[in-house]
Every structure is written in C-alpha cells, then in structure tokens.
Design brief:
Elements (H helix, E strand, L loop, with lengths): L16 H51 L3 H10 L4 H16 L3 H14 L6 H14 L3 H14 L6 H14 L3 H14 L6 H16 L6
Helix pairs in contact: 1-2, 1-3, 2-3, 3-4, 3-5, 4-5, 5-6, 6-7, 7-8, 8-9
Length: about 220
C-alpha cells in the first residue's frame, strides 16, 4: 500500500510562556548567586591576605626593633611600619635617645607627635612625662613645675607618678625654694611608707639638708 506522502508529522507542543519565564528566572538567579559567591570569596581572600600582611609587618617590625641600635634604625621602623605596635615603641625610643643626646627640642617634637597620633595609647603618659622632662632640661623650670604638678595629680595611681613628684621637687629646688622641695619629699614618704623609691627619697632629703645648712652668701 502506498504511503501517503502528504500525511503531516505531529509537532511537539509549544513551550508555554510560564515555562519560559521560570527558566529565565532560574537562569538569572543562578548567575546572581554565582556573582554574589565570587564577591564574597574575594572579600574573604582580601581579609585573609590583609591579616597575613599585617602579621608579617608586625613580626618584621618587632624584629627590627629588637635589632635597632640607633635613631636611624628606629626611624626606619616608624616610616615603614607606622601602624604596628613596634613603630609606636620605636617612636618613644627615638624621643629618649634624642633626650639622652641633649637634643631636647627634637625630643619635645617626637613626644608631641606621639601624643598627637596616639592620645589614648597606654604609653601616652610616658610621652607626656618625657615632654615635661624636656621642659625642665631646657630651663623652662616654672612651666615644668606646673606640668609635673598636673601630671602627678592626674596620674596619681600610675607607676610614673613618683617620677613626676620628684621632678616637682627638683624644680622647686632649682627655683630657690628648697624648703618646699623638702616638704614634697617628706609628704611622699608619709604617703608611701613602703615605696621602693624611699631609699632614693631619703638621699634626696640628705642632699637638701646639706643645702639648707649652707650659710647664705650676703652681698
């Protein structure tokens, strides 16, 4: 029997509009999820690399601080690794080195820069006391006396407070007020009978007693 060549082949049912919309939605969301996942992965990688970099910087700066033997080496730490704890300690060490070398103006600047950058740093009182020592060393005795007095009041519980008290007494003696200086030392002994500084204070008092016993020179 002859095959009817005009018989049409059945066509598959057409894709509905709802199905196309669903496919497009899934495709779009899938691409969005991929992008979001890639962004999140990149962010995590950046954090990991940053922390690794920071850890490396901290370790390098700490090693350099341990090996530093001069102001130039300390300054290199501050310049290259300024955000690390080692750089902050290096800045204080620079100030002390400048003070020890008699460069009180430079030390004052260094301590001032530390206080401006790190006002809440645990070592900020060290920088402040260093700055006051510079005032005293530069002969600005009245200013130093006032600053020592303020420091010893505001930092009364600090381990640095005795140094401010002794600085106050030194300034009083330099200003020709040895009796007042003696009172400062005696008040310290009375307030701190078990202080590790007491032997030094007793030596200071002996020095003052000798000064007070010296006959005044009449012109």
């Amino acid at each position: 029997m002859d095959t009817d060549k005009n018989t049409a082949t059945p066509t598959p049912p057409a894709e509905t509009g709802e199905l196309r919309t669903a496919v497009e939605t899934v495709t779009t969301e899938w691409k969005s999820w991929i992008v979001t996942a890639c962004v999140a992965a990149a962010a995590v990688l950046i954090v990991i690399l940053y922390r690794a970099h920071q850890t490396g910087n901290i370790e390098t700066a700490s090693r350099m601080l341990g090996e530093a033997r001069n102001v130039e080496a300390l300054q290199a730490i501050v310049t290259q690794y300024g955000s690390t704890p080692a750089a902050q300690l290096a800045m204080l060490s620079i100030g002390k080195a400048q003070f020890d070398a008699g460069d009180y103006a430079a030390a004052t600047t260094t301590y001032g820069n530390f206080l401006a950058r790190y006002p809440k740093h645990p070592m900020a009182p060290v920088a402040e006391l260093g700055r006051i020592h510079c005032l005293e060393a530069r002969g600005q005795t009245a200013e130093a006396l006032s600053a020592y007095t303020t420091f010893s009041t505001h930092q009364a519980s600090s381990y640095l407070a005795p140094l401010a008290v002794f600085g106050k007494a030194r300034c009083l003696e330099q200003m020709g007020r040895p009796e007042e200086a003696k009172t400062v030392y005696e008040d310290f002994l009375a307030a701190h009978p078990n202080s590790e500084w007491n032997s030094d204070v007793e030596d200071f008092l002996k020095h003052l007693d000798r000064t007070l016993r010296k006959p005044s020179v009449k012109l």
